[in-house]
Amino acid sequence: MSKIKKESFFWTSYSDLMTSLFFIMFVLFVLTVVLLNKKMAATQDQIEKIREIETATKDIDSTYFEYNEEYKKHILKVDVNFPVGASDINSIDDKTRQKLVEAGRAIQKLIAEKTREYKIQYLLIIEGQASKDNYTRNYELSYERALSLRNFWDKEGLSFGENCEVLTSGTGTGGVMRDKEEMKNQRFLIHIIPKPGIIEASKMK
Length: 205
What we know:
Helix content: 40-55%
CATH superfamily: OmpA-like domain
Largest sheet: 5 strands, mixed
CATH architecture: 2-Layer Sandwich
Mean pLDDT: 80
Order of helices and strands: HEEHEHEE
Structural class: alpha+beta
Strand order of the largest sheet: 1-2-5-3-4
Number of helices: 3
């Protein structure tokens, strides 16, 4: 009889143990599902916020900029006609230079507003282009033109703030968004790129 009681006690204890383990595993499973659902919801909210921030860059003054949806770039609508082989901003007329000042102020206003609203940083890239001709330094020239514009804005007191990193680049006679009329490629493309970093879900509401 004692052997039977011992076996009965063993199986009862074993059954209780397995029931407890099952309950623990079930609770952990439910908890995991709940946490994953919350994480997915937070991630989706973060993605939507990033899209909202990217869309916000299109709010820049359309008087001076045209946004290209395909390449995600702003085209500076100010016609800049440098003499062949020239990169000095003073080689273009006063009226055009004044338009460039107003365009710089439009960028300054946009970045100031959006950094306050979204608490993020921006990357501003000034890209110079050059027309296809017989000039042998077009790649260097396109960069020098972009640098000339940046220095011109600096002299005009146009600062884009501590939350905006400014880079200059030149694509020469290459790159995308080339105009069929080569002389129109003596222009600037402006990249205004938001850098959202880590967006905490609790701060998005």
